[in-house]
Each structure stands twice: as C-alpha cells, then as structure tokens.
Design goal:
single chain; alpha+beta; Beta-lactamase; 2 domains; 5-stranded antiparallel beta sheet; two-stranded antiparallel sheet; 11 strands; 22% strand
C-alpha cells in the first residue's frame, strides 16, 4: 500500500511539473529556453595562405592576354589585359566539356553525325557509335573538333550552344560569348583571360574532367571496337614539367596560340591563362619559372 502511494505521488508530481497545461514550471522552461541553452562560440573565419611577390618583376612573355591566379583563394599574381576580349580558339572546349558533362552520362552512346570537320580531329566516322566518355577524351586530350561537334549534334546544336552561354553566365563569365562548341573564329565567339580562369576553376572542381585533362596519351574505340583513336595531349608541357596537370590548349591563325594550364608547386595550385601568344609553351614555361622563384605565401592567422 505504501509503495502504491509513493508511485501515485511521484506520477502526479511529474505530471504537474511537465504537463503542458498551465504548469508554472512548464511555461518557465518553455519561454526561457535561452537560460538553459549552451552558450555558442562565435564562428571563426579561417583565411588560407595568401600569395605575395618577393620582388616586383614579371616574366618575359609574348602573349597579349594573361591571367595567373592562385586557385584556392583565386588571388591573381600576374595579369595582362585580363578583361580584354580575345578569340578563344579551342579553349572554348572548357565550356563545351562542362555542358556535355551536365547533359550526358559517361557511358551514354552517341552517334557521330558530321563528317569532314575542319581543323584538329580525332578521326570520327559518320555513323560511328561511341560513348560520351571516349568523346570527352577525344575533345579534352586531343582537342578533337569532331568530338565537340558530336556532343552538340547529339543534344541539338542550337540548344547546346544556348546551354554554353547559360553556363558562362552562371560562372560570371560576363566577357564571354559562344556561337560554336569547337572554337572556330567568329565575331560572336570571344572570351577573356579572367573568364577562362573562371571556366578552368569550374572544370577542376570536377574530378572526372580534371582527371581527363591530365592524361598524356590514351587510345579509345567505338562501342563495336571497329574504330580506334590514338590520342596524344596537345599540351607539350604535360609530362615535361613537374606539377603541370594539363587543362586546355587552343590555336587558330587569328586567335594565335592559347593555353590554359593547371599547375601545382610546393603545395599550392595555380591556373595560368595565356592568350594570343606567339609561343604559348615558352610563355607558360617562363611564367612557371617565375612562380617558382618569385611567388611566396604568408598566413594571416
């Protein structure tokens, strides 16, 4: 009997304390939760290492447009005419790749529709069936114009170009416009050194695409193993200079020599954009040597 009394007393006591009616204790707790909450520590803003120049000298180059930027902080360390509009040539394929990767899965099978393509080609044959992944190798490793056209043709050419310009605007590439997926010269096809650095940064965020642009050499085939395409990376610096992770080259007579490069050095990462050069590889070598000798970092924290 006594235990039953204690049980009932305890039950009604807790009911009185915690029942959400007019209990004073319930309302005191409910409307004064801040009194019982743990004090939150203020957020601490973390700032990574910031690049600086050891001395005020710059590399010798022939390019008319340059943008060299520390990738993590996107802090520029060297630039020349960064917002000027240039013919991008095949550096256009950075945006082509981003769009193609968004609308096709790697193992989607596409049909080659266009033959007799001008410029650099991987050797696709009209009617050939090939995966989107193998087309991506052909476009980013060998800069195949036929591969870029195959992506656009299979999605719907005009719709694909529309997506390219939408992607450029999404990335804040406000000085860029595209009318073809290849990089053929046109008055409506242009970009800037700064914009191409933005596009390169976006591509490098994608581990699938960043791996493809770093490949020196590969052979791919159609789905029936009838046609084989041997692809060698156009970027001569890939495999020659330690730290170069490829990215995208471009050339036409009017555009000059263009090269966008991903470079790692001493734990740091850079994007190098060189446009309208007379020797893109020599210019990029000179910039890399300059980075190695003249760019250092301090940690503001």
């Amino acid at each position: 009997m006594r235990y039953r009394f204690y049980f009932l007393f305890t039950f009604f006591t807790f009911l009185f304390l915690f029942y959400p009616g007019d209990s004073y204790y319930f309302h005191f707790f409910a409307y004064n939760r801040a009194l019982f909450a743990k004090e939150e520590k203020p957020a601490i803003l973390k700032i990574g290492p910031v690049p600086f120049l050891k001395s005020q000298y710059y590399p010798s180059i022939t390019a008319q447009g340059v943008y060299v930027v520390d990738l993590p902080s996107f802090t520029p360390v060297f630039y020349l005419n960064p917002k000027a509009k240039f013919l991008p040539a095949s550096t256009t394929k950075i945006i082509t790749a981003l769009v193609a990767n968004s609308v096709f899965k790697p193992y989607d099978v596409l049909t080659v529709k266009t033959g007799n393509v001008d410029g650099q080609v991987m050797g696709l044959v009209p009617g050939e069936k090939i995966t989107a992944e193998n087309l991506m190798y052909g476009m980013l490793v060998y800069s195949g114009n036929d591969a870029a056209l195959a992506f656009a043709d299979n999605y719907g050419y005009d719709k694909f170009i529309k997506l390219m310009n939408e992607k450029a605007q999404e990335l804040k590439m406000t000085g860029s416009h595209f009318v073809n997926p290849v990089g053929y010269d046109s008055s409506g096809q242009y970009s800037t050194p700064f914009d191409l650095a933005l596009g390169a940064r976006e591509l490098l965020k994608n581990s699938y695409l960043s791996n493809i642009v770093s490949i020196k050499e590969i052979t791919v085939s159609d789905t029936n193993f009838k046609y084989f395409h041997h692809l060698t990376n156009v970027n001569q610096l890939l495999g020659e200079i330690q730290g170069v992770g490829g990215l995208k080259s471009g050339y036409t007579q009017d555009a000059g020599e263009n090269l966008v490069t991903f470079y790692k050095y001493a734990g740091h990462q850079f994007i190098l954009v060189v446009l309208k050069s007379t020797d893109r590889f020599a210019d990029t070598r000179n910039i890399i040597n300059w980075i190695d000798s003249n760019v250092d970092y301090f940690n503001p924290q």
